Amino acid sequence: HYLGSWWHDNSPTVPTAMKIANKIYKSQEEGRVFFSFEFFPPKTDAGVQNLFDRIDRMAQLQPLFCDITWGAGGSTATLTMEIAKNMVNFCCVETMMHLTCTNQTVDEVKKALDDAKEAGITNILALRGDPPHGKDEWEQIEGGFAHAVDLVRYIRKNYGDYFGIAVAGYPEGHMDAPSYEEDLQHLKEKVDAGADMIITQLFYDVTLFIKFVDDCRALGIHVPIIPGIMPIHNYNSFVRMTTFCKTFIPQEIKDRLEPIKDNDEAVKAYGVELAIDMCRKLIDAGVPGVHLYSLNLEKSVCEIIDGLGLAKDAHLRKQLPWRRVQTGKRVHEDVRPIFWAHRPKSYLSRTAQWDEYPNGRWGDSNSPAFGEITDVFHGMPGPFSHANKAQLLGEAPSSEEEVFDIFVKYCEGKISALPWCYSGLAPESISIQDKLIRLNRNGFLTINSQPRVNGQPSDDPFVGWGGPDGVVFQKAYIEFFVSPERFAKLREAMSEHPSLVYHGVNVKGESFSNGPEKSTTAVTWGVFANREIIQPTVVDSEAFHAWKDEAMQLWLDVWATTYEKGSPSHALIEKIHNTYFLVNIVDNNFVDGDIYSVFEDTIEALHTDKMQQ
């Protein structure tokens, strides 16, 4: 039956560029059902920050792509472009940008496409667009396009095969079309003009979608057709949206909603249940994946993905331990220093102007200089740009021990971020959580760590990456701030631990190490069939000095500015900045080493010294 291969022509010619349509083909060939998310530009700066935080979290589920809307009448065009750029270059998700004909001249369309190309955006959803706010009917402006097909033709004529082009499909026919049949003809024109995939308008009757696909195939449309699913979050907004779009609602859905329509939580729960049921029917029918209109809401959408069982294998779609930019010159980047593990946007920003990126090894001291240190990445402020800094970093710490307690709270999960760590402990760090808590209580203020791993399957849910059928390894690693006195004791203890290599440096540039002056050490690697050994994470002595400047500066720029200048708390943070060392330790014994034993020896020695005083 045709349903088994309705996602594309029986013998498609797949271009070499990995556009979204190509990724759909690849996903189908691998037997994986994909999912994707749509977002829209928020109206406030705080909303934009929340959206980026949400995208970062939802990207951990490994969606095939995410898209960002253009806004009615082009009302959010500038913001859409900025969000799309940041999604590609800093959130590192495959991104599709909406582009509409509404209120745009050809010159404005060209500028938008040129900007998108320069930013590395390779996928466009070409739409006619809705009428501008305040108007009931859509009107072509002078010097603009009349229909989405005109936009598709323009893109193909002027940009060749650079952009992947998606267009909208309407399982019930577009509300402005004279008939369903005529709307299908318009859709075929868009595909014939160069569109390589279709995403549908929302619907709530799966049989209508199946008929729509059947009708498209009969008409000679053989590109992927992806169902657009809009979960019901609120009864009134559901009624408003479906009335505006003239969407058919099965009686069963009306009957389920009627008794709970005034109970938002019950409506939302039913919305999740309904979406899961619809998606299961669609997947059983043969769709390659589903596109979820998130409405910028996270919980319900993630519950749907979890309910479908598509979240449990997210780690299998993880190419590397860190998220790689999906387009442009960074698409083949395969190694990074471990230091920016929890501030990847900073690393991407500071290396954005590099002409090339290391391949296999980090490189040498002639690598390009790191760029400017900033906590705002192209309009994407970090979590400490809000007025909640004191809640995270303490209202008025008056002693170093109170600062230690803040690091302990982070390790315990009681606060969500530190200036060096924009999210909570990584899942792999749960196994060493108790050890990290003990270190921080004793004045070793950890900001980065990983446990040793000796030949775990690459599909391990905590430390796995690179897909199935491989084996991954890690050297234990820990990075921390520490006082000069504690660091001196730690160095004394190092002589009894020959597998450990350390490097410590303070803000003045005073440096101590028991390793080579210049070195690069792989701390994460993987072995896979028919591939060279992959070494995606390294400790590099040159890069550590660049990271030291940034890490130290965060004490002043983020933490000290929480308090009034001249206050005891401000002076305390300044003192830590001025005197503490930033230290990293690698344990080269990844088989049965214990990186924490040197800390136990140091803590015991410090305790003995204190008792003797």
Average predicted local confidence, pLDDT: 88
Backbone CA Rg: 27 Å
Strands of the biggest beta sheet: in what spatial order? Answer: 7-6-5-4-3-2-1-9-8
Are there runs of 5+ residues with pLDDT below 50, and where?
Answer: 1-17, 359-367, 376-380
Please tell me what the overall shape is: elongated
Approximately how much helix is present in the residues? Answer: 25-40%
Tell me about the biggest sheet?
A: 9 strands, parallel
Distance between the termini: 85 Å
Got a strand count? 21
Q: Work out the strand percent.
A: 15-25%
If you had to describe this structure to a student in words, what would you say it looks like?
The protein is of the alpha/beta class. The protein is built from 19 helices and 21 strands. It has a nine-stranded parallel beta sheet with strand order 7-6-5-4-3-2-1-9-8, sandwiched between helices. A five-stranded mixed beta sheet has the order 10-20-19-15-14. The chain has a five-stranded antiparallel beta sheet with strand order 13-16-21-17-18, with helices on both faces. A hairpin with a 2-residue loop joins strand 11 and strand 12. Helix 3 packs parallel to helix 4, helix 5 runs parallel beside helix 6 and helix 17 runs antiparallel to helix 18. The longest helix has 22 residues. The radius of gyration is 27 Å and the shape is elongated. It starts with 19 loop residues before the first helix and ends with a helix. The relative contact order is 0.09. The N terminus is likely disordered.
